[in-house]
Amino acid sequence: MKFRNFKMVDYVVYGSGCFDQLGEILAPRRVGDAPMIFFVDEYFQDKKEFLSRIPLQGKDKVVVIDVTDEPKTKYVDQVRDELVAEFGTVSGIIGIGGGSVMDMAKAVSLMMTNPGSSADYQGWDLVKVAGVYKVGIPTISGTGAEVSRTCVLTGPTRKLGMNSDFTPFDQIVLDPALTKTVEPNQRFYTAMDCFIHCVESLEGTYLNAFSQSYGEKAQELCEEIFLQKENWDDDADEKLMMASYAGGMSIAYSQVGVAHAVSYGLAYLLGTKHGIGNCIVFDKLEEFYPEGVVKFKQMVKKHSIDIPQGITKGLTDEQFDTMINVSLGMAPLWENALGKDWKEIMTRERLRKLYERL
Ligand code: NAD
Ligand code: ZN
């Protein structure tokens, strides 16, 4: 198909406190006595007041998701196997957390109905059967995972999402009040994922009016929040949540670029997390995104954020080669960033020099 026929999230509820409507939203989705499974970010595991707001019924279960590492295919398969062993089938999976927990919820939902290992489905349109009902509830804003058609997983041979029309959530619950407790450095790293999505989309060769409309709005919101505001407030949480949504919509119809392509190499070799990894790379991309990098540095300074330096120091040639291979494997990202002749522009030597600067 020449024009992408873009599958979107079915239902969206937005507003401070809307989380308390979850019970009502889930009620018509319950199938017999099959339980709803709530995946909860480990941050909330001892937050009794929050846990008491989860609308548990019957055999429903809370599963605490370990977010020490970004989601792995092995972890997805293990959680799926445990749910199948305990319940056979479930009514739905609700992911409450950041990109890591939302991606786990998407992946396990799909793996409840598709046979084999989640590693078999890393790629484009390999998932053939709809998963069980799934809901995404972000508790930190920026990745756009709430609206995307992928769930990023690290598998035995690659870090790649299960991209498919079955991957987007059936429902998302956007309650900015849930993000209040995020620690400022982490909030910044994940928010910059959104800012970088916008710059990469707006400066990319795949740009079109659909992506531009969302990307410009999201970037404007990020700049308002991080450059114009003197103090963090409810308005900032609300706007950042909508920036994440719009940034996700922008890349859904275009593509990300250099920072993502390079940071995927770091993630694969060193386990560097997505938000902070993108910041480490973007900080050095003035030759590709001059205006965006200037703004980024202003935001870093204003908020006294620590951007790690020298993380590739002492790596071997073999390790650099691994990162270069992973990165150059992301062809659509490079093509969006640099155009059809990207291979001539981003040579292995040039990419090695860039990795050495990180
Ligand atoms: P995350 O989900 O890894 O969470 C980061 C940290 O914030 C964790 O320590 C978590 O415990 C904490 N946290 C979350 N909510 C909190 C709250 N309300 N209060 C206090 N602490 C809280 O981080 P992220 O940046 O949101 O997500 C990164 C993941 O998202 C990566 O795995 C990345 O691959 C994935 N991602 C997916 C997509 C997609 O389209 N599917 C897009 C971008 C990134
Ligand atoms: Zn991203």
From TrEMBL:
Pfam families given in the database record: ADH_Fe_C (PF25137), Fe-ADH (PF00465)
Domain Fe-containing alcohol dehydrogenase-like C-terminal: 189-291
CDD domains: Fe-ADH_KdnB-like
Tagged with keyword Oxidoreductase: yes
GO molecular function: alcohol dehydrogenase (NAD+) activity; metal ion binding
Domain of life, source organism: Bacteria
Keywords: Oxidoreductase
Alcohol dehydrogenase iron-type/glycerol dehydrogenase GldA domain span: 12-176
Keyword Oxidoreductase: yes
UniProt cross-references to InterPro entries, sorted A to Z: ADH_Fe/GldA (IPR001670), ADH_Fe_C (IPR056798), Alcohol_dehydrogenase_Fe (IPR039697)
PANTHER family: 3-DEOXY-ALPHA-D-MANNO-OCTULOSONATE 8-OXIDASE (PTHR11496:SF104), ALCOHOL DEHYDROGENASE (PTHR11496)
Record's protein name: Alcohol dehydrogenase, class IV
